[in-house]
Amino acid sequence: MADHLPILEVKDLHTHFFTKAGTVKAVDGVSFSVKPGETLGIVGESGSGKSITAMSVMKLVPSPPGKIVSGDIRFNGESLLLKKEKEMRKIRGKDISMIFQDPMTSLNPVFSVEKQMMETILTHENMNKQQARNRAIELLDLVGIPDAAKRLKNYPHEFSGGMRQRVMIAMALACNPKVLIADEPTTALDVTIQAQILDLLKKLQQELGMAIIMITHDLGVVAEVCDRVMVMYAGKPVEFSSVKELFDHPKHPYTWGLLSSIPQIHNRKERLEAIKGLPPDLRDLAKGCSFAPRCTHVKEECLTKDPALLEDETDHFVRCLLYEQEEKVIIHE
Amino acid sequence: MSELLRVQNLKKHFPIYKGAVFPKKTGAVQAVDGISLTVNKGETLGLVGESGCGKSTAGRTILKLLDPTEGQIIYKGQDITNVKGEELRKLRKEMQLIFQDPYASLNPRKTIEQTVTEPMKIFGMSKEKRQQKLDRLLEVVGLDTYHKYRYPHEFSGGQRQRIGIARALALDPELIICDEPVSALDVSIQAQVINLMEDLQKEFNLTYIFIAHDLSVVHHISDRVAVMYLGEIVEIGEVEELYGDPKHPYTKALLSSIPEARPVEKRERIMLQGDLPSPSNPPQGCKFHTRCPWAEDICKQKKPVLKQVPGAEHQVACHLVKEVVEETEPTPV
């Protein structure tokens, strides 16, 4: 896939929320790109800005109070930020589509699945109702819902959680999107169902060749499905590399903390190494590295100097002053 | 270790009624359908299973928050299945519950002081003693004393869970049932709370029943683990034994479904088909046969009982596991 041009490129994205209590820099300088057929993982805890990054790409950030203040989002070479709402509507659901975290609340309970699925298809594709219905049946079949033709008439409450998530995936895939953004697609599901859904996504990606952006807080899911991964903390990417690199040679102290704070079955520890403290309040971030107050390797200069995103020879980016001394190319800021 | 709690053939069925004027019982949700287990003093028993398998109902029935339909609960050698009134009130002191959702389980109109001292007040502790105890509790769960005048909304999820733990400890209980205490927390905070719970267990010699769906967390904290499926225990045993050598197909599938945070090794995954059947109409025979990849004819007809695995502290309920010792009566481990 290496020779493909990226289908989606995000450059130095800043999304801020202007509230009475102050400006919240939810996304503060995020850059990434995805190629067709590739899966990019975005990991971080609640409030790290991973979902707002996704919402920004879809241009779904509620405004006011939110606003994309600077940066660029390019889909297929065209800037999405310059597009009007009417043009965005044609892109959403067709070229870029999204699976939301909670399948219970993201389907409309008063319409049948048939109606909701056909709405997407009829809006974007040149099809009549019968064709759209057939397409919907085909999609439900594809995501592994048995007896699709009959189930199409059902309402969301008649499906189980895993089945609803499949319906969501089917809807997201309705127009063969080029980019699929999956925002915590399996967080609300049980492990056996999660395994089914992740498998399904991988299979569909191979068949349809789409790019997937997988937003999750679960490093296990990342290890399972992603090719490259970006770790976010307080609105900024702190580490960005291939999945293998990240797990084999994690560089940022936050990533170390994350990896050692999850209990692992193959390696039972007497005690988990928790990251001390709490995530910072994004309204008044102190100067310097946002992770400094919780970092075990904090130096004096971390409190005053903003670390830049550094790159090494293996395409491994890290935002930390620990690596400043080494010879590296500064690519950002 | 001495036995603290014994549960025998515990059942909790919720009746389903039809008809508004003359309601008629038409069926029952068999949430907990005959579980037997023992908990020894000072140990942690993990209870795992997917949503809807009855693990929370089991916890609440043991606490007598729900009246059992059938079976016996024996606490410290005394049958507490049918205790009522004053006797039950005294029992409450010894058994406490930590809830899953730290946002919903604290009263937003009460300060932390009011919340944590309320149980002490109910059991007639003097004001002076209450204050001493409160300060001590806040200290052990890692909060500052000035926090006591604050309201729940001023705390983060992890801090709220600490408050929930302080409240559970207020009456020096022997047994704490932890119902998914860390599943609503971020990983870095989750590790802090797990460590805290382990420290408290040592300090106060507590006994935990730890209910969770996260198998890695349960593996980390438990001494013994019981796996539940559709209201029944399908496998129970010492933690390393059960995770290292799972016997039941469902346990195997669960363990192989966990996405582990290390990408190098790809394990063979046992993919379960379909969803959990409805507990109001569970399958005949072995309840797992509809999803079991190895189901045989006998599984559809005869219900398996828990049998001892030779040479280990391990019991399994499956027809296909051949090396088990036959037992006529399912005796709890």
TrEMBL record, chain A:
<dbReference type="GO" id="GO:0016887">
    <property type="term" value="F:ATP hydrolysis activity"/>
</dbReference>
<keyword id="KW-0472">Membrane</keyword>
<protein>
    <submittedName>
        <fullName>Oligopeptide transport system ATP-binding protein</fullName>
    </submittedName>
</protein>
<keyword id="KW-0547">Nucleotide-binding</keyword>
<dbReference type="GO" id="GO:0005524">
    <property type="term" value="F:ATP binding"/>
</dbReference>
<feature type="domain" description="ABC transporter">
    <location>
        <begin position="8"/>
        <end position="259"/>
    </location>
</feature>
<comment type="similarity">
    <text>Belongs to the ABC transporter superfamily.</text>
</comment>
<dbReference type="GO" id="GO:0005886">
    <property type="term" value="C:plasma membrane"/>
</dbReference>
<dbReference type="InterPro" id="IPR050388">
    <property type="entry name" value="ABC_Ni/Peptide_Import"/>
</dbReference>
<dbReference type="InterPro" id="IPR027417">
    <property type="entry name" value="P-loop_NTPase"/>
</dbReference>
<dbReference type="InterPro" id="IPR003439">
    <property type="entry name" value="ABC_transporter-like_ATP-bd"/>
</dbReference>
<dbReference type="Pfam" id="PF00005">
    <property type="entry name" value="ABC_tran"/>
</dbReference>
<dbReference type="GO" id="GO:0015833">
    <property type="term" value="P:peptide transport"/>
</dbReference>
<keyword id="KW-1003">Cell membrane</keyword>
<dbReference type="Pfam" id="PF08352">
    <property type="entry name" value="oligo_HPY"/>
</dbReference>
<keyword id="KW-0067">ATP-binding</keyword>
<dbReference type="InterPro" id="IPR013563">
    <property type="entry name" value="Oligopep_ABC_C"/>
</dbReference>
<dbReference type="InterPro" id="IPR017871">
    <property type="entry name" value="ABC_transporter-like_CS"/>
</dbReference>
<keyword id="KW-0813">Transport</keyword>
<dbReference type="InterPro" id="IPR003593">
    <property type="entry name" value="AAA+_ATPase"/>
</dbReference>
Automatic annotation (TrEMBL), chain B:
<keyword id="KW-0547">Nucleotide-binding</keyword>
<dbReference type="GO" id="GO:0016887">
    <property type="term" value="F:ATP hydrolysis activity"/>
</dbReference>
<dbReference type="InterPro" id="IPR017871">
    <property type="entry name" value="ABC_transporter-like_CS"/>
</dbReference>
<dbReference type="InterPro" id="IPR027417">
    <property type="entry name" value="P-loop_NTPase"/>
</dbReference>
<keyword id="KW-0067">ATP-binding</keyword>
<dbReference type="GO" id="GO:0005524">
    <property type="term" value="F:ATP binding"/>
</dbReference>
<dbReference type="InterPro" id="IPR050319">
    <property type="entry name" value="ABC_transp_ATP-bind"/>
</dbReference>
<dbReference type="GO" id="GO:0055085">
    <property type="term" value="P:transmembrane transport"/>
</dbReference>
<comment type="similarity">
    <text>Belongs to the ABC transporter superfamily.</text>
</comment>
<keyword id="KW-0813">Transport</keyword>
<dbReference type="InterPro" id="IPR003593">
    <property type="entry name" value="AAA+_ATPase"/>
</dbReference>
<dbReference type="InterPro" id="IPR013563">
    <property type="entry name" value="Oligopep_ABC_C"/>
</dbReference>
<dbReference type="Pfam" id="PF00005">
    <property type="entry name" value="ABC_tran"/>
</dbReference>
<protein>
    <submittedName>
        <fullName>Oligopeptide transport system ATP-binding protein</fullName>
    </submittedName>
</protein>
<dbReference type="GO" id="GO:0015833">
    <property type="term" value="P:peptide transport"/>
</dbReference>
<dbReference type="InterPro" id="IPR003439">
    <property type="entry name" value="ABC_transporter-like_ATP-bd"/>
</dbReference>
<dbReference type="Pfam" id="PF08352">
    <property type="entry name" value="oligo_HPY"/>
</dbReference>
<feature type="domain" description="ABC transporter">
    <location>
        <begin position="5"/>
        <end position="255"/>
    </location>
</feature>
